Task: inverse folding
């Protein structure tokens, strides 16, 4: 099927949509090595077919929105690998093309969300889960704007400003997207009822309340148990549709570089999330196509 005929905001007004799950875990399941600092973005240059295959797996599982592989793709990160500005721009635009191709392999309408990850993702040192990088809002805006403009040129349906740890960076991102011509969603990474940087979620969500370019606000890359309260707060503060895509619930051991604990992601919770205002629902780290297929069925048969 070709690109959707209806804007994402129109579709959200009709009812909830299923997002995809973690791209990295699907790539790992396909045998890809993601140990590089560029993470999944490395494959944009080295093996783009793997990225398209991962997107296709989620689309076939029932995902109605695919998030591109550009989360950790930046001009600065590619420059460290010896790639010039134009070469990096080609790879950023390719991330949208690959998702669009995968969307075309299924019968249902599938929207493409171009991922704009936080500044800390470029640093590849885990600082996206802390925020407070020591940069001003203006400096963060200057960092994000070129990538935003390049991704917007590729024609996604929406820009996913995702895994944002800090309200200051959210302000910078909202400034950076002005005038790009593409709607956005703003999604924080949270711990309890605060951003990772410690700001109350009500204050963080309020930044987007009056911004017409923002079609949804919410949370991702968080504990499943933190979702329901965050959804309620986002809906109450902004009056906008809410996006929610938590991790599996397992914990990452940075020293041993492996996941610990048992998954707590449960598609049965989705009914409570949608009742609270969630309209874009999926998974993040360690949530694969099988779980998204279950979630999609719950959304179809509430």
Result:
């Amino acid at each position: 099927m070709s690109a959707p005929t209806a804007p994402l905001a129109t579709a959200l007004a009709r009812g909830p949509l299923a997002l995809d799950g973690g791209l990295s875990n699907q790539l790992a399941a396909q045998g890809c090595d993601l140990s590089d600092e560029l993470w999944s973005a490395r494959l944009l240059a080295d093996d783009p077919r793997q990225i398209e295959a991962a997107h296709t797996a989620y689309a076939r599982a029932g995902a109605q929105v695919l998030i591109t592989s550009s989360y950790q793709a930046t001009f600065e990160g590619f420059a460290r690998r010896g790639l010039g500005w134009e070469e990096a721009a080609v790879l950023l635009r390719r991330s949208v093309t690959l998702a669009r191709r995968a969307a075309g392999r299924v019968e249902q309408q599938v929207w493409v969300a171009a991922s704009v990850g936080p500044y800390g993702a470029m640093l590849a040192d885990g600082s996206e889960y802390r925020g407070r990088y020591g940069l001003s809002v203006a400096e963060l805006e200057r960092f994000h704007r070129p990538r935003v403009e390049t991704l917007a040129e590729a024609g996604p349906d929406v820009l996913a400003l995702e895994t944002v740890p800090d309200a200051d960076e959210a302000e910078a991102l909202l400034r950076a997207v002005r005038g790009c011509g593409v709607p956005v969603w703003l999604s924080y990474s949270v711990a309890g009822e605060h951003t990772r940087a410690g700001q109350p979620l009500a204050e963080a969500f309020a930044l987007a309340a009056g911004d017409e370019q923002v079609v949804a606000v919410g949370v991702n890359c968080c504990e499943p148990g933190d979702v329901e309260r965050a959804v309620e707060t986002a809906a109450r503060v902004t009056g906008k549709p809410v996006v929610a895509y938590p991790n599996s619930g397992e914990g990452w051991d940075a020293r041993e570089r492996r996941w610990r604990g048992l998954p707590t992601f449960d598609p049965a919770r989705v009914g409570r999330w949608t009742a609270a205002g969630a309209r874009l629902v999926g998974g993040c780290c360690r949530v694969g196509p099988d779980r998204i297929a279950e979630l999609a069925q719950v959304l179809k048969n509430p």
Summary: The chain has a mean pLDDT of 94. Residues 141 and 172 are 5 Å apart (CA to CA). Residues 85-103 form the longest helix (19 residues). Residues 17-250+257-300 form a domain with the TIM Barrel fold (CATH 3.20.20.330).
